Amino acid sequence: MYEIENTLKPGESSTIKRFRVLIRQDTMLPSEAHVFDAQDSEIRTYRITEYRTADTHPVFWQIEIDNPVRKTRINLEVINETFNEKLDDAMFTRENLKKLARVD
């Protein structure tokens, strides 16, 4: 299992201070994600409990979300997943992506 951790930059403020993702070595897909608040308490846990293949793409099919703050658990299940394979390659050029990222 690989672990990736993202933290808030020093001096910045947010509800989310830290985000940790566990990546499966066999598929290189996330298996869990953990979200921590400013007090470093875990506020959400996401567990991928089933993967499937849709249009040759691996997808999360079932996700379990724990909210320890509200003491709740939600189970999400994908009913249908398709991909638009006809996207224009020009959409992903550096110039176009920079244009899309601009904030006016």
Give structural notes.
This protein has a six-stranded antiparallel beta sheet, with no helix packed on it. The protein starts with a strand and ends with a helix. The mean pLDDT is 91. The protein has a single domain, classed as outer membrane lipoprotein receptor (LolB), chain A (Clam), CATH 2.50.20.10. Helix content is 8%, strand content 50%. The chain is globular and about 45 Å long. The chain is mainly β and 104 residues long.
Short synopsis of the structure:
By secondary structure, the chain is mostly beta strands. The chain has 1 helix and 6 strands; from the N terminus they run ββββββα.
Features:
single chain; 6 strands; 50% strand
Architecture blueprint of SSEs:
Layout: E1 2-7, E2 16-23, E3 30-37, E4 42-54, E5 57-67, E6 72-77, H1 94-101
Antiparallel strand pairs: 1-2, 2-3, 3-4, 4-5, 5-6
Mean pLDDT: 91
Strand content: over 45%
- Give the topology string: H per helix, E per strand: EEEEEEH
- CATH T-level fold name: outer membrane lipoprotein receptor (LolB), chain A
**How would you describe the shape?**
globular
Number of strands: 6
List unreliable stretches of 5+ residues.
none
Helical element count?
1
By secondary-structure content and strand pairing, the structural class works out as mainly beta
**Major β-sheet, in short?**
6 strands, antiparallel
Main β-sheet, spatial strand arrangement = 1-2-3-4-5-6
CATH class bucket: Mainly Beta
The share of residues in helices is under 10%
Oligomeric assembly: single chain
Rg (C-alpha, Å): 17 Å
| Terminal-residue CA separation | 40 Å
Q: What's the CATH architecture name?
A: Clam
| Tally of discrete structural domains | 1
